[in-house]
Amino acid sequence: MANPAQHIASPAKPREIVFRPIVENRSARHEYFITDEIEAGIALVGTEVKSLREKKVQLAGGFARFTDGELWLENVQISVYKQGNINNHDPLRRRRLLLHTRELRKLAQRSATKGVTIVPVKMYFKGNKVKVLLGIAKGKRSHDKRESIKERDVRRDMERD
User: Is 84 exposed, middle or buried (0-12, 13-18, 19+ CB in 10 A)?
Assistant: First the structure.
């Protein structure tokens, strides 16, 4: 008879979650002070996901807005899928963001302040799901942007030396 210890099922290893970046909104960090970030799911149709796999998306100029207690991502262009048929999606349609109720309340309180907005910072695949990293942002003025550029140049010079 075989060793009984060999027949005991080994404990299942947890699956490793793979992060695959789709796009990053670099202009958001230039245009705004990002004070806090939160990860949200997004409701998409099939052809949108296929376009995202091809990285056919533009986050620049996008923002999130509350409507009837729900958070919607607006002004984000996901290009039409080339192999799509008549059921293809509208590239600039509003897309619902998926968050827990307590997270929605927290975001609503923070964005109610004057001069504060919610902008998409990154979009990525987390496993099979598409996630959006939202930033709570306050607009920069032109002199703030110049200071950011100076700091970046100084940091780059220090790394060279």
Answer: middle
DSSP string, 105-126: HHHHHHHTSTTEEEEEEEEEEE
What's 129's DSSP letter? E
With vertex at residue 153, the alpha carbon angle to CA 149 and CA 159, rounded to the nearest 5 degrees, is 145
Q: Rounded CA gap, 153 and 46, in Å?
A: 42
CATH code for the structural domain at 18-155: 2.40.280.10
Domain assignments of the chain as residue spans, ordered by start = 18-155
pTM of structure: 0.76
Say how many residues make up the chain: 161
Instruction: Evaluate the CA torsion angle 146, 149, 154, 155 in order and state its sign.
Output: positive
Residue 2 — pLDDT band, cuts 50, 70, 90? Answer: low
Exposed/middle/buried for 60, CB within 10 Å: 0-12, 13-18, 19+? middle
